[in-house]
Each structure stands twice: as structure tokens, then as C-alpha cells.
TrEMBL record, chain A:
Keyword Nucleus among record annotations: no
Protein family per UniProt: Belongs to the yippee family.
Pfam families cross-referenced by the UniProt entry: Yippee-Mis18 (PF03226)
Superkingdom field: Eukaryota
GO molecular function, one term: metal ion binding
Domain annotation Yippee: ranges: 12-110
Listed name of the protein: Protein yippee-like
Automatic annotation (TrEMBL), chain B:
Keywords: Repeat, WD repeat
InterPro entries, alphabetized: CTLH_C (IPR006595), LisH (IPR006594), WD40/YVTN_repeat-like_dom_sf (IPR015943), WD40_PAC1 (IPR020472), WD40_repeat_CS (IPR019775), WD40_repeat_dom_sf (IPR036322), WD40_rpt (IPR001680), WD_repeat-ST_regulator (IPR051350)
WD repeats: 278-319, 332-354, 490-526
Full protein name: CTLH domain-containing protein
SMART domains: CTLH (SM00668), WD40 (SM00320)
Domain CTLH: 94-151
Length: 122, 552
């Protein structure tokens, strides 16, 4: 197979639980909002690396209709989360261009120590 | 002689004017400003013709056109034709003053030539000064060569001194006087060392000094034709031939048939055959590097070691490794005496052939996935040192330059003339950067596909006029480097094409390596193939096999 191109991150890294490919840094979590999906917690990231994107989809979430693309680890192809391409509601625009990594799919530091009225989403 | 006739006004009037000017060389030229410039005279006479234009676009001035043709005729040695053209068209090549000037130079009438110089119509005082200097310098040297030292000294003092650009110039000329008289006194003057150049040479130098409106520059017509041919050639996006002949009869335009587009061979059965299998690495081989003489090959096992192989025997000559960190890239120094290698602790190190580490550049110099390139003078080392930046450091001058990109860089390659860098980005997109002097982005190439792999691209073709790249859609992409135009998509592979290599000596041959486990050799779509030696192809095809199927 060809040589898979991956970037190495430094710091508190979240990586793919199957092939350990680096995906994101703890510092890049947008901490204001706490996300929940069917497998548990998920974090919203400013920047995610070493992922491939899938087809655009309209998905109805707790917070409304969004256009998302699923993201897959380049190393092994397993799904690790999604990316928000568009939000149909004004209040959800802040998510556009950002990434969600499902806690269940990645290895890395646990977060969520603060409990100051953070919203629960999706 | 008689009267001036209507159908031949210009030439007859010119002849009259010439006689008038020749009759009073010393006073009328300077004392009658209205007739001071013969160019003005000519301008007035030819007013009706001067505005005449020819050609479909109406931008070519007839007078200029005829003059450069006449000049070309003279340059080719066709003096009679040149003179005839001047007469028949009524357009003299040079104004009468210039003609007179030229004769005066060739005859050695220095004083008169300087005087004529002032009446030729030069607007720039410094040109007059420089030209006068050249003439008088010639006078000086000719006097010296003729043994007339006192006259030479007088010329230097009275005529040349005030024209000298610097005191150095004056001193240099004076030194000639000294050495001359010294030589004479020693009595070794039987060997005459002529200092003065030939008069035609002087005339040529003066011609280059004078503006083109006064004297049509030599070979101007050839220059214009060459410009047109160059433009045609540059505009020809498919131009890929070894021969340099372009005909003047029709505009040059190559067809696609000059670009490789047909698979000549799949796998290693054919003109290109498997020479060696180099076993030894335990990790996948990520990069290879040929020595300048093509006699040795370096291979790098990812985060493992670098091995040096003898190309003809296939024997492993040496293994380079560090105790601890693994090596990630390799490159030969152009003199073949040292080896460079990127290390997974981000440093770059240099070994001598025996394996002794001679240098180590610490700090963030390279990444785990990065190419390593060394310029032909051995001075600059290049590698990807940040996600979006390439480091070019001069190990001699100890200076660094950086190429900053707007997206993640996956790989890059250096042009043969070391003046350009082809950078592959995640996009996918390929950027061409000029690194000679100021660093700047020159071109962008798009169209190919990439999501997961390192896809390599390269320069190729005659004068590296093309850029080729692999693509995850199984095709080889070829762009014309100058125009950024995608001119070819080669289909045939059934898996991602990860690497391409254009034969450096045969512009019609290209090799590609794919996830379908094969190498394909591409050539022209014609049955008339030029037979090329295996060695030349091997220096490229072999390198891809090693790198991409993990096989040794």
C-alpha cells in the first residue's frame, strides 16, 4: 500500500483507538459546550488532523438540522466523529467548520471537570 | 543632377543635403543650430514617410522595417543588396552625419569624428562624453603604438583628461605611457605590443554605445525573429522534443504526440528489467537516493537505518544507524563522500562513508515524513521542518531560508537546476516555488486526487518543461509547467499511483508506481521508438520500486 501521510502532534494528544494515529490536541477543544452522542461524550475541536471526510449529509440533531460530514481516521479508516459543514439555525453557527471527536473512538485525556451550566448537545 | 522630381523626392534631397554638409564640416554644423542635427533634416524630409506603417496591425514603422532589413543584408555580407535597398526605398540606413561619422572613425580622423558626434543628435550628454572618450582613447593608443609618445601625452592632457570618469581611469592611461617608455629604454621593443584595438572594433563599440535611433543595432532583425521563436516555443504546451529546430515558415505548435501517453511496459518484463532485489531492511523503505555517478544507491528504512548499496553488484556496502533514534530520510552529498540523513528526533546528521558521524544539526530540522534534498554545490539542505513549512539551510554560510505554505506539506522535489522546488500539499495541490534569490510562488497545479497517501510529483521532459504527479484515482497527471495547464491524464493503473519519475535523459519516457503492485513505463503513442539504454531508465524506475511496495 502507499505510504499513509500522517502528522504528529505534540502535547496532550487524542489518537485513534485502533491504530493510534494522532487526531487532535486537548488544547484545541472548544470547551464551552459539552456534547453527547449515542456512544457517550464527544468533544468539539477547532482543529483535527489525519482524517478523511465522507459524503455530506443532513442530520437532525438535538439542536436542530445540520449539514455534516463523517470523519474517518486515515490510518485505519474507522469512523471517529463528524465535521459541521452548515447549521440551519443561527444559534448553531459557531459549530460550522469545527470537528466532533467521539470519546468512545479515541484514546486521550478525559475532560469535563467544569460544571458551570455547560449545555448538553446532540 | 537637374531638378528634384516628384517620384523620387527623398533620395535626391538627401544627396543634396549630404553635399551641403560635407562642404562645410567645421563651421556650419555648429553655427547653424537649425541645421545642426542632420537627423532633424532627415526627419523633415521624410515627414511624409516617417509615419507610414505596414503590417496588419499597423504597428510596424516602414522606415524602421526597411532599415533593419538593410542592416541585416549588410551583416550577411550582401553589401550590394544592402546599398541597392537603401537606394530603391529611398530610406538610408544611417543619416548622412552617421555615415560621415563611421567613415571618420575608420579613417582615423579623430578630431572630426568627435565634432560630428556632437551634431549627430544625441540627447544624452553622458553618451557624448563616453563616446568621445572611446574615440580619444583610441587616438591615444594609436599614437603610442606609432611611437609618438609626446603627442600621446599631449592628447592625454588636453583632450582626454577632462573626459575621464575617475582619476583611476586617468592613472591607468598614464601608466601606459610609463610602461611604453620603459619598454623602449630597455630595448625590448622588437616585439610590438599593440595596445590599440582595430578600428572596426572601435566602431562596433561605439555602435553599442549610441542609441538605436541613431544607429540601428547589429543583428536587430535576428533578435526580433529569435524573440518570436522563443514566444512560440514557450506557448507550445506540448513541446517536448530533443531537437531544437523550429522553422520560420509556420508558427511552431507541437501536437500531443510528444508527451508520453501509452503504456510501454507493465511490471518488469520488457526493456526495463529487474536488476536487483536489495534485501536487508526490516522496515518499509521510505526513500532512496542515487549517488551523482549512479554507482551507489542509498535506501532508508522508516525509523530504522540507512543502507548503501552498490548498483552493479547489488551488494550492501554499509549500514548507517544511530543508537536510539531511527533514521527517516537519506541523501547523497554531490561529491559522493558523505551521506545526509534525517532523524526521528527532528535533527539532520551527516556521515562519512565509513559511518562516522561528522555533523549533526539539532533542533527542529525535519519531520518524520519528509524528503531530503541537497543542492548540487553541496551547500543547501532542504527538508520539511513544520507542518506547513520547508527549511532550506545553507550549511556553509550557516543561514536559513523558509518556504511558508498555507496548507500541510506532504512531499517535495528539487529541480535539476536547483532553482525551483515542487511542493505537494494535502489539498491536493502542487505549488512551484522559485528558490533562486528571492523565494516566491510561481505556479500551482491542480486536478489530481489525494486523501490518505504521500503522493509524489516530479519535473520532467525536455528542459523540465512539465510536472508529473501520481494520484489516488489511479492516473498519472501531467501539466505544462509554464502555463499550469493539465495536458495529460494517463490511465492504466488499477490502484493509487503513489510515485512518478520522468526519465532525465529521455524526455519521452516516464515511470509510475502504484498500489496495484506494478510499475508502468509510459512512452510516446507512436511506433517509432528510440531505443534507450537501460541504465538511464534504471536510475529512476528502480528508485520507485524500492520505496513503495515495501519490498526491498
Amino acid at each position: 500500500m502507499g505510504r499513509i501521510f500522517t502528522l504528529d502532534l505534540e502535547g496532550n494528544v487524542y489518537s485513534c483507538k485502533y491504530c493510534h494515529t494522532h487526531l487532535a490536541l486537548f488544547e484545541d477543544i472548544l470547551s464551552k459546550v459539552r456534547f453527547l452522542c449515542k456512544h457517550g461524550e464527544a468533544y468539539l475541536f477547532d482543529k483535527v488532523v489525519n482524517v478523511m471526510v465522507g459524503e455530506k449529509e443532513e442530520r437532525n440533531m438535538l439542536t436542530g438540522m445540520h449539514t455534516v460530514v463523517d470523519i474517518f481516521c486515515v490510518g485505519c479508516g474507522s469512523i471517529v466523529g463528524w465535521k459541521y459543514e452548515a447549521a440551519h439555525e443561527e444559534s448553531q453557527q459557531y459549530k460550522v467548520g469545527k470537528f466532533i471527536l467521539e470519546r468512545f473512538q479515541v484514546l486521550g485525556p478525559n475532560t469535563w471537570s467544569h460544571d458551570d451550566g455547560s449545555d448538553v448537545e446532540d | 543632377m537637374g531638378g528634384v522630381e516628384d517620384d523620387e523626392p527623398a533620395s535626391k534631397r538627401m544627396k543634396l543635403a549630404c553635399r551641403e554638409l560635407k562642404g562645410n564640416p567645421n563651421d556650419s554644423l555648429l553655427s547653424e543650430p537649425s541645421f545642426g542635427s542632420s537627423r532633424d533634416l532627415m526627419a523633415r524630409l521624410l515627414q511624409s514617410e516617417e509615419d507610414e506603417v505596414i503590417g496588419s496591425k499597423g504597428v510596424i514603422k516602414k522606415v524602421e522595417f526597411v532599415q533593419i532589413i538593410a542592416k541585416a543584408l549588410y551583416s550577411l555580407g550582401y553589401k550590394k543588396s544592402g546599398a541597392h535597398l537603401e537606394e530603391e526605398s529611398g530610406i538610408p540606413l544611417h543619416s548622412s552625419a552617421v555615415n560621415m561619422f563611421m567613415h571618420q572613425i575608420l579613417d582615423g580622423n579623430w578630431g572630426e569624428s568627435v565634432a560630428t558626434l556632437h551634431s549627430i543628435g544625441l540627447k544624452d550628454e553622458s553618451t557624448v562624453k563616453s563616446a568621445s572618450f572611446l574615440i580619444l582613447e583610441q587616438k591615444f593608443f594609436e599614437l603610442l603604438d606609432g611611437g609618438k609618445v609626446m603627442d600621446a601625452l599631449k592628447t592625454l592632457r588636453t583632450e582626454i583628461a577632462h573626459l575621464c570618469a575617475s582619476s583611476n581611469q586617468l592613472r591607468e592611461l598614464s601608466s601606459n605611457l610609463v610602461s611604453f617608455s620603459h619598454g623602449a629604454s630597455v630595448g625590448s621593443s622588437n616585439q610590438v605590443n599593440l595596445r590599440a584595438k582595430s578600428r572596426p572594433k572601435l566602431l562596433q563599440e561605439l555602435q553599442e554605445l549610441l542609441p538605436p535611433t541613431i544607429m540601428v543595432p547589429e543583428r536587430r532583425l535576428e533578435q526580433l525573429v529569435e524573440q518570436a521563436l522563443t514566444l512560440q516555443r514557450d506557448a507550445c504546451v506540448f513541446h517536448n522534443s530533443l531537437d531544437r529546430e523550429i522553422s520560420l515558415y509556420t508558427d511552431h505548435q507541437c501536437g500531443r504526440d510528444q508527451i508520453p501517453s501509452r503504456t510501454l511496459q507493465v511490471g518488469t518484463n520488457g526493456e526495463v528489467s529487474l536488476k536487483h532485489k536489495l534485501s536487508g531492511h526490516h522496515k518499509p523503505v521510505s526513500s532512496v537516493s542515487w549517488s551523482s555517478d549512479d554507482g551507489k544507491l542509498l535506501t532508508c528504512g522508516v525509523e530504522e537505518s540507512v543502507r548503501c548499496w552498490d548498483v552493479s553488484s547489488g551488494e550492501c556496502l554499509h549500514v548507517y544507524e544511530k543508537s536510539g533514534p531511527g533514521l527517516v530520510s537519506c541523501g547523497w552529498s554531490p561529491d559522493g563522500k558523505s551521506i545526509f540523513s534525517g532523524v526521528n528526533d527532528r535533527s539532520i546528521c551527516m556521515w562519512d562513508l565509513d559511518g562516522k558521524e561528522v555533523e549533526n544539526w539539532k533542533g527542529q530540522r525535519t519531520l518524520r515524513i519528509s524528503d531530503l534534498e541537497i543542492t548540487r554545490d553541496g551547500k543547501q539542505i532542504m527538508s520539511i521542518f513544520k507542518e506547513t513549512a520547508i527549511l532550506l539551510f545553507d550549511r556553509e554560510a550557516k543561514s536559513e531560508r523558509v518556504i511558508e505554505e498555507d496548507q500541510t506539506i506532504t512531499s517535495f522535489s528539487l529541480s535539476r537546476d536547483n532553482r525551483y522546488l515542487l511542493v505537494n500539499l494535502v489539498g491536493p495541490e502542487i505549488h512551484l516555488w522559485n528558490i533562486d534569490g528571492d523565494i516566491n510562488l510561481v505556479a500551482k497545479y491542480k486536478g489530481h486526487k489525494r486523501t490518505r497517501f504521500v503522493i509524489k510529483s516530479c519535473f520532467g521532459g525536455s528542459e523540465q518543461a512539465f510536472v508529473a504527479s501520481g494520484s489516488e484515482d489511479s492516473q498519472v497527471y501531467i501539466w505544462h509547467r509554464g502555463s499550469e495547464e493539465l495536458i495529460g491524464k494517463l490511465s492504466g493503473h488499477s490502484g493509487s499511483v503513489n510515485c512518478v519519475s520522468w526519465n532525465p535523459v529521455n524526455p519521452h519516457m516516464l515511470a509510475s508506481a502504484s498500489d496495484d503492485g506494478t510499475i508502468r513505463i509510459w512512452g510516446l503513442n507512436s511506433h517509432l521508438q528510440q531505443h534507450k539504454k537501460l541504465q538511464q531508465v534504471h536510475s529512476n524506475g528502480g528508485s520507485m520500486a524500492a520505496a513503495y511496495n515495501g519490498r526491498t
